[in-house]
Write the structure tokens for this entry.
Amino acid sequence: MAQATELRQVHQQQSTGASQPSELFGRSIVNFSLVIWALIVIFPMIWLAYSSFKTDQEIFFQPWALPASLQWNNFERAWVEVHIGQYFINSMKVVIPGVALTLAVSAMAAYVLARFRFPGNRIIFYLFLAGLLFPIFMALVPLFFLARDLGLLNTFQGLILVYVAYSLPFTIFFLTGFFKTLPSELHEAALIDGANEYQVFFRVMLPLAQPGLVTMGIFNFLGQWNQFILPLVLMSDRDSYVLPQGLSFMLHQQYYQNDWSALFAAVTIIMIPTLTVYIIFQNRIQKGVTVGALKG
Amino acid sequence: MEVKIENLKKQFGQVIGVKDLDLNVRDGEFVALLGPSGCGKTTTLLMLAGIYKPTDGTIRFGDRVVNQVQPRDRNIGMVFQSYALYPHMTVFGNISYPLKLKKVPKQEQMERVERVANTMGIGGLLDRRPGQLSGGQQQRVALGRALVKEPDILLFDEPLSNLDARLRLTMRSEIKQLQNRLGITAIYVTHDQVEAMTMADRIAVMNQGVLQAFDTPEDLYDRPKTLFVAGFVGNPPMNFADVSVMAEHGGFTARNESIRLQVPAERGQKAAAAGKVRMGIRPEDIHVVDEGDAVTAEVVIVEPLGRDAMLDVRFGSDQFLVLADPQKHIRAGDQVKLHFDMDSVQFFDLQSERSLLWN
């Protein structure tokens, strides 16, 4: 043990000391590239955020300057007059059930596909995977007619179902791999302890799959939140627009009705949920709760 | 609870996991299933647990045939090699889980978990999670979880193989004592013969899905019924040489081109009629001597084991393992004289690989 600690220390010294000039050079290149990348990603967000507090004049004549005074009414106009508030709520109404349903269905399907052998298992799995190969644009026209015939055009339920269908292939693919990594002894132990298959799934396997579920939750939340082309086709009624549609509509409006400051405010509002979701859950993605299930 | 296994068979596709297994385990007995990897011992255990369904044959717990009974209705406790603790539950959660599933009242759950935890010496760890425990503590939690529902039968699947050598020694005697005190029938799968020999009342030796022997540790060691058992049980393993046993000068001799050894009459007699046979002799029954009627051999390798030095010696075409006194300072390349203590020599038929002495 003492030896191992020593080794680790030596290793740390080597990695933090950066005594070799070539290593130092290599590392500074890496760090420099990362700084540039971070600037590229962060700068527009910050610029957007503070610009949303400016007046239109300020945005056009002093694009880089900080706002002279905070124009909170930009947000008010965006929320009320341009109906961003309405679209925001619409988006929530679609994305929250959409993600929940995606995770529920995928987890159950993936669990069965990963852990039970039965005739047709592989076929079902590959059928799900085939969904990944199907470009969304090819499906738009048939999807429109299908939704119309089912009376699901301009309904949130219809959009939710379509979102879920599009999210299933990758989510199932990912979670199947995840469930396969969980030790089968846990399943056996739970059966012997007196659990039935449902209890094994809900009480033992599902909690253990939490990191995978969180990852897929975020992935699908971002994907569904930013989805534009599907609602554009399926939701033609202005009252049931979701956010990306609303934004696009607002952008087109700018050609005849100059209110760039409200547009900036609207974009800022849209970013908040995605950022929040990511910041809250990023640690939990990394935290593997399976530690201790198997003695390594 | 008595366990009766009759004609048990398990097939995975074309592969036969277990073949025509018959085994009777008495109430309160500690039985070890011993064998190399892939010999079918874990498959047998999982059939007892109800995880695998037998292809053929019957398993009885007492008088009840349990072939189709679900694991949860068999009232068994099982300890896994990986412990299989639920990582998202605390120690309390893990141990109480079987009770919770049985809908035992909360108060009684607390009492029973506490009692078991105290027996296992983990009473202070109930709030921890498995990831925060050492291997030995996890092992105790796993054992506690198996015991808390007061099972009729305890199943062990190589429970000690992930522990370090010292801890393994302690846990070995702890498990044995506990089983003795509680009087629960225990079936213990292991590939470690020392574990099997020290813990079990009887050992079932398996190889390639077939039961080779089912005997007490002493019988397996001193009276092996098959060549496989003779070679598998004992460490360092038994030495083998092909010899012919002949009646000479009123006694019996085992000989080939390089050795010629006197065999006690009652053993020699049984082997004499069989022509060429395989002779087995354990390393501790061969002694390095300074003089006398002995076989001369060349030392190839010396492995110091501490109490003994293990010599790999060669004479003629035969190569044997011999235990010697390390004080003799024998080195590789030396010539040594060997005396064979033939009182416990074994003879096996070359074709059937069965013992000529004990069948």
Remarks:
- The mean pLDDT of chain B is 90.
- Chain B touches chain A at residues 46, 49-51, 70-72, 74, 76-78, 80-88, 97-98, 101-102, 129-133, 135, 138, 145, 149, 162 (CB under 8 Å).
- Chain B has nine helices and 20 strands.
- The two ends of chain B are 30 Å apart (CA to CA).
